[in-house]
Design brief:
heterodimer, A: Glutaconate Coenzyme A-transferase, B: alpha/beta, Glutaconate Coenzyme A-transferase, 8 helices, disordered N terminus, NagB/RpiA_transferase-like (chain A)
């Protein structure tokens, strides 16, 4: 019987959410690991696009940044930064935006800017990067981040990237053309927006995780889906492939 | 005064001394790749002050320049140490004003990229689908909206960026100062063409620029100075010359976290030059 960490379960679950043949705009960190795992398993035809302008890249190790040389070496096409955002993302050519964040709220709005007030923050985060337009323009968005009470809040301190705004219909009113976040995959389970309220509800828990555990790490009254699923545990193949992924230039 | 092609190639200290002035709006570009570290270090050594530093991803190079007290203001879209964590010198300047207070003007990548495009195109602003529903427009006065005259649709507008000086690093130049760069292209072409003055550092000078697939060539006549700076992008990388030093990016975290360690690093930078 194999064992795994909560992070490994999260990355495996996130990789499963990507389908073969999709075109995926990948954020660095957890999303990049999960997308590269998916490409080695069930989705060999997954097209990876990074904001550095690398289109159809097939790195044999994980990049540390979104612009590592390994992404350029293995890319089908290399374009400049204005072009990747204008011609490829803004035009609606990307199926899935794969994001992470420091804070997410009940409507899946994401904060990567500040904790606290903008002018006098308690923590200054890196900022927007490509995320606001990825969240706006991809056909759908998948978020992967660790579920902690300080990160899963009722309302984010700062809206860096819009999820479902303040509720149903907001994306349309704002002129956002993609569907927005369809799934949030954490180290405890999976949350999805309720079709009526657009609020994130718990639709799956990972093996050995209780609903109470998830609720205790969520900053709003988390609704539980009537047909709550239990995530299938990682297979031997998923785990061995994940553990075999090496980051460029980093000793294991 | 007319630009004479043969005078374009000069030393980096000379280029910085003549073309980068206190109080200038300065853009050092290079998106993870070809980051002009040698030029950033030279600006630190020459003690430039009150600069408005513009860059999509401030990275270690601006963490160092901010820590050294070169900057009054930072215009940016993502301020972190990629894959590692925070830029602690930038955070310290914002939170505590050390060594000098730092203002910020914050955008998204798409916004910054389009600001350079507008600047390079001789337009006052650029149009994009962006920022709708986010809180940045409340804090950044170079973000606004514009109504499409054809469809009536409301879109985001961002003010053009026209730096006083743009500095980029490239693989090579010929003896006339024509520059060739390839690999991840970033926003360097736009940043150079948007600027009033441009400095390029290169890995080497060659007799002839043999064509490379997908390369950008910047003609000498849009540049003011070309300086040879071997490994001038390290610890970032120069495609075809050397790899990104990911260990150095990780090691910077420890130095950046601590004012004393950073000050020791800064002292060493000055000593290495003399």
């Amino acid at each position: 019987m194999s064992t795994w960490t909560a992070d490994e379960m999260m990355t495996v679950a996130a990789s499963r959410s990507l389908r073969d043949g999709q075109v995926c705009f990948v954020g660095i960190g957890l999303p990049s690991t999960a997308a590269n795992l998916a490409r080695r398993l069930h989705a060999p035809g997954l097209v990876l696009v990074y904001e550095s302008g690398t289109i159809g890249t097939e790195p044999d190790e994980l990049p540390l940044s979104i612009g590592d040389g390994i992404l350029a070496d293995s890319a089908l096409s290399l374009v400049g930064v204005p072009e990747i955002f204008n011609y490829w993302l803004q035009s609606g050519r990307i199926d899935v935006g794969f994001l992470s964040g420091a804070q997410i709220d009940r409507f899946a709005n994401i904060n990567t800017t500040v904790i606290g007030e903008y002018d006098e923050p308690s923590v200054r985060l890196p900022g927007s990067g490509g995320a606001p337009e990825i969240a706006a323009s991809c056909r759908e968005v998948i978020v992967v981040m660790r579920q902690r009470l300080r990160a899963f809040v009722s309302q984010v301190d700062f809206v860096t990237s819009v999820g479902h705004g303040s509720g149903p219909g907001d994306r349309g009113r704002l002129g956002l053309r993609g569907a927005g976040p369809v799934r949030v995959i954490t180290d405890l389970g999976v949350l999805e927006p309720d079709p009526e309220s657009a609020e994130l509800v718990l639709t799956a828990v990972h093996p050995d995780v209780t609903v109470e555990q998830v609720r205790s790490e969520t900053g709003w009254e988390l609704e539980i889906s009537a047909d709550l699923r239990i995530t299938a545990p990682p297979t031997e193949q998923e785990l061995s492939t994940l553990r075999g992924l090496r980051t460029v230039g980093v000793a294991s | 005064m007319a630009k004479i092609a043969s005078s374009k190639i000069q030393s980096l200290p000379q280029a910085v001394s003549e073309l980068v002035h206190d109080g200038d709006v300065v853009a050092l570009e290079g998106f993870t790749h070809l980051i002009p570290f040698a030029a950033g270090h030279e600006i630190i050594r020459q003690g430039r002050r009150d600069l408005t530093l513009v860059r999509m991803t401030p990275d270690l190079v601006y963490d160092r320049m901010i820590g050294a007290g070169c900057a009054r203001k930072l215009v940016f879209s993502w301020g972190g140490n990629p894959g590692v964590g925070s830029l602690h010198r930038m955070r310290d300047a914002l939170a505590s004003g050390w060594p000098v207070p730092l203002e910020i003007e914050e955008h998204s990548h798409a916004g910054m990229a389009n600001r350079y495009v507008a600047g390079a195109s001789g337009l006052p602003f650029a149009v994009l689908r962006g920022y709708a529903g986010t809180e940045l427009p409340e804090h950044t006065d170079t973000i606004s909206t514009v109504t499409c005259p054809f469809t009536g649709e409301e879109l985001a507008a961002v003010a053009a960026l026209n730096p006083d000086v743009t500095v980029v690093h490239a693989q090579r130049a010929d003896r006339a100062g024509n520059v060739q760069l390839w690999g991840i292209l970033g926003v360097q072409k736009e940043a150079v063409l948007a600027a009033r003055r441009a400095i390029v550092t290169v890995e080497e000078i060659v007799d002839e620029l043999t064509p490379v697939p997908g390369a950008v060539v910047l003609p000498a006549w849009v540049l003011d100075a070309v300086a040879v700076a071997p490994r001038g992008a390290a610890p970032s990388y120069a495609h075809g010359y050397y790899d990104r030093d990911n260990a150095a990016y990780r090691a910077w975290d420890t130095v950046s976290r601590d004012r004393e360690k950073f000050s020791a690093w800064l002292e060493k930078l000055q000593e290495d030059a003399s």
